[in-house]
Fold this protein.
Amino acid sequence: MSEGVVVSRAAAEEAPIVANLMQLYIHDFSELWFDREVEGELEADGRYSNYPELETYWRDPGRQAWLFRIKGLPVGFALVDDVAHSPKPIDRAVAEFFVVRKHRRRGVGLAAAHALFGSAWGVWEAATVRRNAGARAFWRRAAETYPGVRDVVEEDRHDARWDGAVLTFRVG
Ligand SMILES: CC(C)(COP(=O)(O)OP(=O)(O)OC[C@H]1O[C@@H](n2cnc3c(N)ncnc32)[C@H](O)[C@@H]1OP(=O)(O)O)[C@@H](O)C(=O)NCCC(=O)NCCS
C-alpha cells in the first residue's frame, strides 16, 4: 500500500514546505491540548506560531529534516535530532513525525520511519506523549518490523522531562 512513497532529506529551500506541514501537525496535536491555556491556540492571523528554531534542522549537524512525498506531492515530514527524553544515551531521536490524514493507515508512516532508521545506525528513540496512544502503537510497530532492530525497550516515564512512553531500540 505504501508503494510510491519517496522519503528524502529536506533541502534548506524546502523549509517552507516543512513549516506548512507543521501547521497541520500542530492542528492534530491541538486536539490533545484541550485543557492547556496557550498550547494549541491559533494566533490572531489564523496560523499557529512558528515552530521554535525550525532553522536549526538545516544548520546543526545533529539535526535533520525529512519530507515524504507521493507522486511528487508532500504527504508528511519528520524532524530528527539527538535530544533524549530519558537518561538513556541515544544517537538519534524522532523529534516530530507526521503523515497527512488522507494517507494514513496505508503504510506511509512505516515506510518513512524505516527510511529514517536506514539512514543511521545506533540507538534510536521515539517518545510519545501520554495521550497519543496511536503514535505509541505506531512506533512499537515501526521498530518491530524493521530488519535488524535489537534491544527494543519501552519505558513509561512521568517526570519533569517527559510524560508518556519512551521507546528505544538499536539499529544495525
Ligand atoms: C502516527 C502516524 C505518523 C502514523 O502514520 P501512518 O502512515 O498512518 O502509519 P502506518 O499506516 O504506517 O501504520 C502502521 C501501523 O502502525 C500502527 N498504527 C498506526 N496508526 C495507529 C493508530 N492511530 N492507532 C493504533 N495503531 C496505529 C498500526 O499497527 C498500523 O498498522 P495497520 O494499519 O495495519 O493496523 C500518523 O497517524 C500521524 O501523523 N499522526 C499525527 C501526528 C503524530 O502523532 N505523530 C507522531 C508523533 S511521535
